[in-house]
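Possible regression after last week's pipeline update?

I re-ran a chain I had predicted before the update to compare outputs. Posting the input and the new output here so someone can diff against the archived version. Not blocking, just want to make sure nothing changed silently.
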Amino acid sequence: MKSKNLYNQITNFIKSKNYKELSLNPVIDLKYIRNEKLKKYLFTFKDNKTNKTFALRPDLSLMSLIEFSKSKISKKTKIYYSGDSFRKNQKMNTQIGFEIYNYNKQKDEKEIILNSAKIYQKVIGVNGNLKIGNAQLFQAVLKQLKLAKRWQDRLISLRQNKKYFNEILKRLETNKDIDENEFQLDKKMYINLKKINQNEIIANRTVRDILKRFEQKIYIQPRPENGKKCVKVIREFLKIKCPIKKAPVVLSKFFTKNNLNIKISQDYFPIKINKIGKLKIYFNSSEMPEVDIYSGFVFSIRPRSKKIKRSIVGGSYNSLSSSLGLRKINACGAAINL
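New output (post-update):
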């Protein structure tokens, strides 16, 4: 009964802010799941008529974007959704989310954060911390360090996996995975492969693809010579935490100190105050929700007590629709796990 009352309170609040309900499909076409790590936790089945593979929806934010993309609506639209998501590595999860689609102003991002803060304090009713980050800042740092694209892609895709993320940093820092004897063997094999039919298949790949991969790794995108310095900058950046009001100054000093041509204005973040009610607001450079969909600002609201598990996460994901082959949709939103 308590959960039912909480659900009604949250949905009633969201509806009072002019968000309209969007019904979601319980299953998702597997082609929309790009995260390889997530795929192993899906409940999948095959439709023999269409020869397509589907899964029970693992996340509602992704489902809402897919459903909204089917409409012809191009103006700003506020929607909310609710229901259960399913993964093998967790219990059935009941979620409520709200999104603003086709938005183009920072005030919409601010609205998402303020509504999340009100829900957390007035409806859920516990003290917490609101942490704000931005995925684009991390990517900007990597570009300024002039890391090869394959290293940038690795660090971005593995950002949420601490174990493998740190392993990549160690490789950059120490070159520990480079064995000169193995390299010479690879080079000798490369020379031999250049002499045979480029369309021949070896280990399910054409010779042409194998050669291209070798050239990309060794000649086009080699490991940076200043790997140790790059890793030092990355680690220092990911340790930056401060009250949100101080963030533009703190970040600007960091970028200047490390000769990074990145400019941060005082209006960069949607929120510029250090407190909303009893919620303390911080900038956290390592803030990154578990769901790998966000490409811009990100935030989370979590309780100060470890005994309470309920949280709100959200952010903007303006590039997700295009990456899925959908029409371009700028989107920002938040979700509450019940």
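Follow-up from reviewer: compared with the archived run. The first helix runs from residue 2 to 16. Marking as no regression found.
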